[in-house]
Amino acid sequence: MATDAQQACFEAGIKFGSLYHQFAGTPLSPDSAASLETAMVEAIENQPFCTSVTVDIDEAALAEAADDHGYVELTGRFMEVRMRVEYEGVVVHTEMVMEDGYPLMRIVDLNDSA
Amino acid sequence: MATDAQQACFEAGIKFGSLYHQFAGTPLSPDSAASLETAMVEAIENQPFCTSVTVDIDEAALAEAADDHGYVELTGRFMEVRMRVEYEGVVVHTEMVMEDGYPLMRIVDLNDSA
Amino acid sequence: MATDAQQACFEAGIKFGSLYHQFAGTPLSPDSAASLETAMVEAIENQPFCTSVTVDIDEAALAEAADDHGYVELTGRFMEVRMRVEYEGVVVHTEMVMEDGYPLMRIVDLNDSA
Amino acid sequence: MATDAQQACFEAGIKFGSLYHQFAGTPLSPDSAASLETAMVEAIENQPFCTSVTVDIDEAALAEAADDHGYVELTGRFMEVRMRVEYEGVVVHTEMVMEDGYPLMRIVDLNDSA
C-alpha cells in the first residue's frame, strides 16, 4: 500500500497536470492575464486535497511575445505556479518553473507531521 | 471568394469552437463560477474581430450537480454564451444555448451595413 | 436570417476552433505524430456537417523542436489542417496554415450549388 | 527532500491530470474510439518516466450515450486508464476508474526495488 506521503505526492501531481493541460492554449494578453490567473487558482482549488494555489503570469515576457498579434497562447514559459496539497496530515509544497525552456514541475517541501 | 458576411460568420464560428473546447472540463463550483466567467470572456475577446462576449453560468444547475463532490467539470449544460463579431463592417451576433441536451451554437442576427 | 452559405461558414469556423483548442498542448513526438493526426481527423469528423478533415503534422519541424526533450506540445506551427464542410448543399473548403508565425484559418473555396 | 518513491508518485499524478484534462471534451463516437485510445496512449507515453499507458473506452456506454446525436464529448465515465511510471528504480502502477459517478485516480501498486 502507498503511504500517506506518497498519496499526497500523487495528488499534488494530478493538480499540476490538470492545471497545465486544461489551460495551455488559452488566448492571453496583458489585459486578460489577471482574470486568467484568478480563474486557474479557483478552478484547481476545487480539486480534492488542494488547499492553496498561486499562479503568476510573467507580464514582461507576455508583453514582449504579444507584441506581434496582440495576444499569445498560454504555455509554461509565461507562468509560475505554486501549490499546497494536504492529505491525511501530510503537507506537500510543489512548484512549476521554467528550466532550460521546459516547464519543470517539482516537489519543494514535504512535511509529514502524521 | 467568400463575402465579408461569410467571413464574419466563419470568424464567429472559430470563437465558439475555441471557447468551448478550451474550457470544457475545467473544475467548477458555485464559488469559482464568477472567476471562470470573467476569464472566458477576456480570453476570447483577445481573438481577432471579437468585440464582445458574455458567459452566464447557470448557478442553480451547477449547485445541484456539484452537490455530490463539491464541484463538476464544465460542459455546455452549465452555461450560455453570447458573442458579437465584427468583420469589415458586418456585425454578427451568435449564441450558444442548450437544446435537447446538446449545446447548440447559432447565428442570431447578421447586420451587413457595408 | 443567415443564408445557407453563411451558416456553412459558421459551422466551418466552429470545427477549426474546436480542433485547435481541444488538441493544443498535447505531448507530441515524431513517434506519436501519426496517431494524433488520425485521432484529430476522426474526432472532428464526428461534428455535424463536417464531411472531411486532413491534418498534416510537419515532421521535420517537429523532429528539430523535439530534439531537446524528446517531445513538444502541439501548437499551430507543427500542423496544417484542411476541412470540407457541407451545409444544405453549400460546400466550404477551409484551411489552417502558418503565416508570420500565426496559425491563420481561412476559407479557401465556397461552392453554393443550392 | 522527497524520496524516490514520493517523486515517482508525483510523476504518476502529473500523467493522470495531463491525460484527463488534455482530452476531456473531445468529440467521440464508436467509430472514433479506437483512434482516440491510441493517440492518448502515445501522447502520454511521451512524458518523462511514463513507461506504459493503456486506455479502454467503454464502447457499450459510449454507444448508448451517442445514440441521440451520433457522438458525445469524452469524460471519465467513458474510459478506464492504467499507467506504469518508473522513477529511479521505483515502479508505480496507477489506474483511473469510475466510482460513484466520479473518475477516481489511485495508486494500485508501488514497487520500490531501490
TrEMBL record, chains A, B, C, D:
It comes from the Archaea. GO terms for molecular function: dihydroneopterin aldolase activity. InterPro entries: DHN_aldolase_MptD (IPR027508), MptD_sf (IPR036839), MtpD_C (IPR007181). The keyword rRNA-binding does not apply. Pfam families: DHNA. Pathway: Cofactor biosynthesis; tetrahydrofolate biosynthesis; 2-amino-4-hydroxy-6-hydroxymethyl-7,8-dihydropteridine diphosphate from 7,8-dihydroneopterin triphosphate: step 3/4. GO terms for biological process: folic acid biosynthetic process; tetrahydrofolate biosynthetic process. It catalyses: 7,8-dihydroneopterin = 6-hydroxymethyl-7,8-dihydropterin + glycolaldehyde. Its EC number is 4.1.2.25. Residues 3-107 form the Dihydroneopterin aldolase MtpD C-terminal domain. Gene3D superfamilies: 7,8-dihydroneopterin aldolase (MptD) (3.30.1300.20). It is an enzyme of class 4 (lyase). Substrate binds at E11, M105. Homotetramer. Belongs to the archaeal dihydroneopterin aldolase family. Catalyzes the conversion of 7,8-dihydroneopterin (H2Neo) to 6-hydroxymethyl-7,8-dihydropterin (6-HMD). This is Dihydroneopterin aldolase. It comes from Haloplanus litoreus. The lineage of its organism: Archaea, Methanobacteriati, Methanobacteriota, Stenosarchaea group, Halobacteria.
